[in-house]
Amino acid sequence: MNKIIRYVFVDLLRNRTIIFYTILLLILSISVFSMEDNYEKGLVSLLNIVLFVVPLVSIVFSSIYLYNSAEFINLLVSQPLKRENIWLSIFVGLAGALCLSFLIGVGIPTIIYAYSTSGLTLIGCGLLLTLIFVAIAMWTSVLIRDKAKGIGLAILLWLYFGLLFDALVLFMLFQFSDYPIENIMVGLSMFNPIDICRILILLQLDLSAMMGYTGAIFREFFGNALGMGITLVVMFLWCIIPLWLSVRHFKKKDL
Amino acid sequence: MINIQHISKDFGKFKVLKDITLSLDGGECVALIGPNGSGKTTLIKSILGMVVPNAGIIQFEGQNIQHKYTYRNEIGYMPQVGQYPENMTIGQVFDMMKDIRKMPDSQLDYELYNSFDLPALLGKRMGTLSGGTRQKVSACLAFMFNPKALILDEPTAGLDPLSSEILKAKIQKEMKQNKLIIISSHVLSDLDDLVSQIIYLQDGKLIFHKSLNQLKQDTGTDKLSKAIAKVMAVPDHKI
To answer: What residue ranges define each of the domains in chain B, with the CATH number in brackets?
Structure first.
């Protein structure tokens, strides 16, 4: 199993897209931190970039990589290897390479310029988001054989999590603004890993004071250990469930 | 060595294999022949566990292969189109396969590797290789680990005449070592002096499985290509 992880990982480290992604993140983080004199402001700007770029690159790049390595996966399956191990190794290799890019591109500048709880939360959230969106890409690409459709679905899913979900939540918020729906909002946010990250990081910053009553509810939920525990569990579920589904499907797939 | 009992496979409504029963033993070189889309590659992939049949069992040396993977240590497979990670060099691909198979270096079969002159190309990236060179890499990988059974899907397609002769000589040599060799090919002239048995598939059905001499006798021809042409010309294949 380790060998396949190593080969996927080494293959990816030489990949131009990964190198470009790392450099892009690095330039963005350094320029954001150099422009803002207050590191908290810098973190908020960086947060918005991270929540936009990381899921997009993780899901689309992983899908393309998986479709392009279809023949390579076939080759591995014809060798004396267990299918689960092949699939999980590819996941670890992909997620590892993307996490490394993120750590170099965002992690190191954040530690240098904004070493704080909120900065560390941002790094942790970015890494978790990478894992989650790689896992989702693994699932969609094992389900859909056609490359164009698969990549299309990846982009659609990203649009859904990045934009559409928030629009739907806003729509609900206005429709039901006469009712006390703050607790439901906390529950709803659990259905979108990107939202969870956004809330988690904003609550670490003083800015959350600006969020009014909903902010207070969020602070109450996410502020205590139980709420944090539940949030972490939900984030891990977001990663494990798609991965598990993909492994289950891959074991029976005709190649 | 390989025992196939009543396997069927469908992809949706399309029935690719219909109730195929075969028994193949070592020391034979079996040609898998049939028109395009007759299920040859699906049959090969079922033996390798890459395609899971809907019904029936496949045994390798008496063991049911379902949910197993160690039996593939004994099979060398050369795919129709061998594709490898573009960024890896030939040397790295060989290292990876050696890592996967975990066979001591002294037991490896470097004959094809040397006669195809691959050591000179080790630093080249897979993405820059021509189709023929990829075929050579696939062939070397299939033969390198001294497997008991070799499955070659269109082995000579894309190879130059010289390399194709080297490969054929190697196949004949392996056959004498009591190995089972399964070749699927459309180049019948290549198969003539190579194979000992013929399996003919059409529309997913096994039409016949007989020795080459028997087939030549039955059709009254002296060349495989003529014999097959004669078989295909007869609509219900009652030869």
So the answer is: 2-233 (3.40.50.300)
